[in-house]
Amino acid sequence: MGLKSLLSVILVVATILGGGLWLRLELVKPEAPAELIGMAIPPKIVVATPPKSPPPPRPATPAPDEVVLPAPEQPTEQRSEPPVATPSPAVVEKPVRIAIVIDDAGIDAKRTRRAIALPGPLTIAFLVYGNDIIKQTRAAKAAGHELLVHVNMEAESRTVDPGPNVLLRNVEPDINLKRLNWMLGRFHGYVGINNHMGSKFTSDTESMTLILTEIKRRNLLFLDSRTSPKTVAGKIARSLGIRTAARDIFLDNQPELEAVRRNLARTEAIARRTGAAIAIGHPRDATLDALAVWLPVAVARGIRLVPVSALVSGKARE
What we know:
Layout: H1 3-27, E1 97-105, H2 109-116, E2 123-126, H3 133-142, E3 146-153, H4 173-184, E4 192-197, H5 205-217, E5 221-224, H6 233-239, E6 244-246, E7 249-250, H7 257-274, E8 276-281, H8 285-300, E9 304-305
Parallel strand pairs: 1-2, 1-8, 1-9, 2-3, 3-4, 4-5, 5-6, 7-8
Helix pairs in contact: 4-5, 7-8
């Protein structure tokens, strides 16, 4: 190696050694004076580079045969709706129907007028031998009531008078038919007949078959007043195919106001238990007074007043 080369190497080594010594002295310099502490050092100005927005996501490529459905639309507001009450099944109440029949009308004209003036419809059974029977029956019909012919029949007791042209068991059939036809011709507009008295006659099968056969021929109904527990009238009427019904309650066997009221309550109880009831009263003051109060109240309680024809069973002959 030449001298020049050696001197160059020595110079480089010296330079390196000198730089290392200077660096060591810089690291162990004493702390700066107190008055220099806290001097503001100009902050380093860094220019912020806005972040790059990420690229928009690429839509997923559906797999073959895959159907991509749109997402369901979300409601903008969640509302709490009140619960909807489920209606309970309607309770079908059994209809309560009552027919009020006024027997023996036409004889006492004054009380018959009171009966006709009652709210109805009622069924009014007229004895045919009263005065002005046509005028009275027309008035009853105009008031909306139903009419029956109140046919007088033989009673068990010989001490009672059933009236003229009474139907009897011990007379020829033609005589009874003639008497019946006379009664049925006294007025018009009736729907049928019921028996006046007749405890003995309605218990006789032959006699009742004769009368009811004529009733069937005329397309009339028959109401059994049930003046005897031995009556066969209803049974025969049904066998002949006649529209028929039977009384449930006598309102005024005791013609006193409280007794009539009790019997009206009994009538209503029967109707509520069975759906229908038929009560028979007479044109007496206690009966008319009780009915004048009971009829409007009964209607308000849901009782349906009907004519007796609405409660008969069986089919009329065509």
